[in-house]
Amino acid sequence: MFTGIIETTARVVKIEKENTNYHFTLEVPFGDELAIDQSMAHDGCCLTVVKVDKEKKQYVVTAMDETMLKTNLSTWQVGTEVNVERSMRMDGRFDGHIVQGHVDQTATCTKVVDENGSWRFYFSYDPKNAPSITVPKGSISINGVSLTVVDSEPGMFSVAIIPYTYQVTNFHNFRPGTVVNIEFDVFGKYVQRLLEQYMEANALVR
To answer: Structural domain of residue 133, as residue ranges?
Structure first.
């Protein structure tokens, strides 16, 4: 479980393919604090640390074929900057929103607007992929960042980014065409599914 408050960014330093799996070696400032079996969110995707080199502050995570197909990890290259967050602590304030690290689908950045002090980022996604719901002022996770939805339409939404978030996450790398991981709000997903089941049940009764 995560909060969507990014700790820092890591950089991909090596990529190895083994059968259908991909092993990513990343370097991060707190790499000497990591341990094997630890869960970390990478651009919002929960991956398990399988190897640690404390001296180099590097670690390895493995992504299976299913993860590669449903996330933006297939776009990673050596040098890619990745948002990272260690799992949530239970002894502090909850500053973001509940982020499970289970990417629902990818979205594509369609437009970036400089608003003279902040930035508005627009994204498009496939609304046919369930769950897929956003609401104005609702929560959404983009590359693991907990954000508030501004505009919301089927298959499209926007978020506003303050300078701090722009600088400390990989949002400063986003351009039209950039593919990102999105995780819709977990409560919204449950409500959507319950409504679908209710409608299906009513249709059967009729």
So the answer is: 105-194
Please tell me the pTM assigned to this model. Answer: 0.90
Same domain, 190 and 109: yes
Q: How far apart (Å, rounded) are the C-alpha atoms in residues 123 and 108?
A: 5
Task: Convert the pLDDT of each residue in 65-101 to its tens digit.
Answer: 999 999 999 999 999 999 999 998 877 777 888 899 9
Q: Residue 41: what are its φ and ψ, rounded to 5°?
A: -90, 130
Is 200 within the bounds of a domain?
no
Question: How many other CB atoms are found less than 10 A from the CB of residue 93?
Answer: 7
The CATH number given to whatever domain includes residue 157 is 2.40.30.20
How many structural domains does the chain have? Answer: 2
Average pLDDT over residues 138-159: 96
